[in-house]
Amino acid sequence: MGTPEPLQDNMPARQPSPVNSPRLQAHIADIFELWDELNDFGRDKTDAALKHCMERICSWLDAQDAFWIGAVHVLNAPHKRSTDALSGWRIRAIQPLHPRYHDTRHYKKVVKAADHADLELGATSIALGASSGRFRGYTLQSGHLVDLEAFQQTAHYDFYYRQHDIRDRIWVVSPVNADTESYFCFDRMGDRPPFDEDDLELAAFALRGIKWFHRQLMLSQGLGLCEEPLTPAEQRVIRGLLSGASERKIAETMKLSQGTVHQYATRIYQKFAVQGRVEFTALWLSGNPGSSAATADAVTPDSAA
Questions:
Q1: The pTM is what?
Q2: Is the pLDDT of residue 193 over 90?
Q3: With respect to CATH, is domain 232-286 assigned 1.10.10.10?
Q4: 22-221, what's its fold?
Q5: 224 pLDDT band (50/70/90 cuts)?
Q6: CA separation, residue 94 to residues 12, 15, 18, 187, 194 (Å)
C-alpha cells in the first residue's frame, strides 16, 4: 500500500461565520430556498433530494462535479482507534452527482473494506478521519488539510485527482452523531482557478443549516442504525413504504411478487428494530438514527455508485 503522505501538523478547518462576505449575502435567499425545496421532496425521495442539493450548490460554486459520502465509526476500543490510520472511520456509502466521472467498481471496493490495510490511503482521508467530531470544511489547494506539495507527488493524488482532471476540491463534513458523519465534496475541474475562501464559506453555510437532511441521508442507507446494511432492493422498498404505497403497489412497481416485497419489508423492519410500518415511518420522521455504530465488517451494498 505504501507509506501515507505527510499530514499538516496544523489543520485549521474553515468554520461557517456570520453572513459577512458579499458573495454569501448574495446567495442567502437561494440557500433558504434550497432548504425549503429539500424539505418539500418528501421522505421517500431522498436520492432525488440529494441530487438536487448537489446540483444547486455546484451551480453557485462553479463546480463541475460533487459526491456525497456516508462515513461510520466502526472501532469502539480506544487502543484500536489509536493504531488505525483512519481513526476508526470507514466509508460505507458513496453517491456521485455525475457517475461518468467516477470509478464505480473501485467505489464498491472502498465501501466493502473492513480494514484500512485493504485501502490505498491518501493523506486527505487520514486527515479527515483525524479531525472528526465537529462540523468542518476544507479546500485541497489551500493546503490547510494536507501538505499539498508532498501530496501532489503521490500515487494517490495521481489516481484520484490528476487522472480525473480535478483542479480543487471542497469538503464539508457534518457529524450526525458520535458514530456517523455526512460528507459533501465538490470538485472544480480543468484549467479553472482553485476555490477561494468565499466558495468554502458559501458551501459550508448552505450545508450547516440542514442537519435533519444529513440524518435523512444516513437513514436512507441504514447507516448508524442498522446492525446490517441495506441492500439495493431494500432501499427501493423503503422508498415505496415511505411514499404510502401498499405492498401490492410496490410489488407492481418493482415487478416482484407481493410475497417477495412483504419479505423485504419484514427484513427492513427487523434491521431498524421496529414492529411495522407505523413505527418505521415514525422513526423516519423523527430523523434520529441513534448512536449505535455499524460493525467493522458491515458492507453497504451497490448503492455506492
A1: 0.74
A2: yes
A3: yes
A4: Beta-Lactamase (3.30.450)
A5: low
A6: 25, 24, 31, 15, 24
